[in-house]
Amino acid sequence: MRSLTVLGLASFALWPWNREVRDAIRDSLQMWMGGGGFEKDLCPMPNGVVEERHVDSLEVLLAEEHCPFVAAFFSSSSPLSQTPELALTEQRLATSFPTVRYVRVETEYMTIRSFLQWDISFLPTYVLFWPGKEGGTKGWHRWTGKGANPYDYSEVSSWISEVTGLQPQNTSVATTGPPLLPRGSQKASSAWLVIAWTLVALAVLHRTLNWQPIFGR
User: Which of 22, 24, 69, 77 is deepest in the core (most CB within 10 A)?
Assistant: First the structure.
């Protein structure tokens, strides 16, 4: 009871001054009064920002029930995923739907458990959650493919519009602002490609010239 009195007095004293403190105290009072189900009414406004999320934090998105987002699952080891064209497509998608969080996911670090949790059977793919508060089809939606190109802006944006009921906004900001860096590292991929072909060449030479094994039997 004393704690509630202190919180109430502090809330009254700070009410006109600091909105963040005021909101925090209000939330605390509701929790103390048994309002554990209190939830925020407003979702964060990404405003065209492409969010990079590590695999370890993906489970947080699976528990989402209020705020819309689309997660893009691509393999950065694929040459198609490393192109500036895909980076521009992702930047345009994030800008076209500013109320929908656009989350980049690198699948190289995903475990089998993560693939099963997200029900992913092929790559690249998209997973979209839409709460359905403003129309559209509520629930989880997965990119089905069926001949559609996941690298093409028009086809992906049409799919998002069909699910959410939102219309794409002007994407000129995506082309005038700082460019989004492509996924993965082309230099690293090129180095691994050179190493792989070198090993293949050594294996062919070993078989062709009947070289003796380096280590004796």
Answer: 69
CA–CA distance, 158 with 191 (Å, rounded to integer):
37
Q: Which residue type sits at 13?
A: A
Nearest to 184 by CA among 88, 118, 108, 91: 108
Q: Under DSSP, is residue 73 helix (H, G, I), strand (E, B) or coil?
A: strand
Longest dimension (CA), the chain: 88
Rounded Cα–Cα distance for residues 165 and 66 (Å): 17
pTM over 0.70: no
For 38-81, write each residue's pLDDT tens digit. Answer: 444 577 777 788 998 877 788 888 887 889 999 999 998 899 99
Edge-to-edge strands, sheet with 69-74: 50-52, 101-106, 69-74, 125-130, 139-142
Sign of CA dihedral 186, 188, 193, 198: positive
Residue type at 65 in one-letter notation: E
Measured distance CA(63)–CA(66) in Å, rounded: 9
Q: Which residue has the tokens 């004393």?
A: 2
